[in-house]
Amino acid sequence: MSKPLPQIITRDDWERLIAQPSKRAPTGIRNAAILHAMYDAGLRVSELCDLAPQDVIRTGSNAHSLRVRRGKGGKDRSNLGLPTPAWACLERWAAIRPSSRYFFSTLAGNRLSERYLRQMVAQYGERAGVYKPTPEGPRAINPHMLRHTYATRLIDRSVPIHVVQRALGHSSLATTQRYLHVNDAKLAEQLRNALDPESGEDAALRRIVREELQAMADG
């Protein structure tokens, strides 16, 4: 029996979800950073709990990334680049976090439990009205849906599949290829835009240029 396709959240879902953590309370600041690390770097729950301060890396004013050591299957991953909004959230937490061997720690500096992170995501999803559709009806979302969404976003932006595989830490390319099928609904549009000279962004730009040249000729 084939595995079901990975389930993802939409951009609107994400905006509602990330609005849930408190912007002032230390736990809210920390939890917002954790959500970004799931959504914008694809980290697993166990990887988030074990992330060390030295794994949050700044190499320049606009160059920042995460490193995963001994992830699933004992694999290391590095250079997980973060977008600016995600990095800003991590820096907010870094400025107030307690001294700890764990980057994402309790306020007492202890390791967060994986169960807490799963409950956190489910509760924020409930508050935001973001659910996982199932044949039995809507269910609470889970952290892996954010990881699935990360992978799908990369593929949507034409990141090569082998690069997505490395970013996710998959042993098998076949596992990563499941994400190619998530957005099959967009396939017709992608093929049409690739083959039709009068569709897509390039065509729109060409039309604008033609119209401007015609206006100059008429003038």
Q: Overview of this structure, please?
A:
This protein has 219 residues and is mainly alpha-helical. The chain folds into 2 domains: 11-172, Orthogonal Bundle (hpI Integrase, Chain A); 184-218. The protein contains 10 helices and 5 strands. The protein has helices at residues 11-18, 26-41, 45-50, 84-96, 114-128, 143-156, 161-168, 173-177, 187-195, 200-218, and strands at residues 56-60, 63-68, 77-81, 131-132, 139-140. The strands form 2 sheets. Strands 1-2-3 form a 3-stranded antiparallel sheet. Strands 4-5 form a two-stranded antiparallel sheet. It is globular and about 70 Å long. The protein starts with 10 loop residues before the first helix and ends with a helix. The model has no long low-confidence stretch (mean pLDDT 82).
Task: Give helix % range.
Answer: 40-55%
Largest pleated sheet: 3 strands, antiparallel
What class, by secondary structure content? mainly alpha
Shape: globular
Entry keywords:
single chain, 219 residues, mainly alpha, hpI Integrase, Chain A, 2 domains, three-stranded antiparallel β-sheet, two-stranded antiparallel ribbon, 5 strands, 52% helix, 9% strand, globular
